[in-house]
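2024-03-11 09:14:02 DEBUG pipeline.ingest accepted 1 chain
2024-03-11 09:14:02 DEBUG pipeline.ingest length=96
2024-03-11 09:14:03 DEBUG pipeline.predict start
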Amino acid sequence: MPLQCGCAVIAGAAGIGFAVRQSGIVKGESGAAMRHFAFHVADDRSAEPAVRKASVRDEFEARTLAERMLRETYHHTSVEVWEESRRVWVLSAQEA
């Protein structure tokens, strides 16, 4: 089932959305340009974080998606959010 946050994503493994990105600008339903984020999800069962990508309208939607990823399981300890080469923020389980 796709995530319900207004994100331009499709359903992926375990119901997590992944961006459908082709060359050029991805536009949302409203026609506005979408921003592309990478979510590095730390899990206490793995040494390497899982990287998920999504295209959303703004940082608010990116944060909403990061919070949702963090709450998927108690094994997720943090989510680091990147937009291109800029780290936007790190959300930890203690903050959520």
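2024-03-11 09:14:41 DEBUG pipeline.report The chain has one domain: 9-92.
2024-03-11 09:14:41 DEBUG pipeline.predict end
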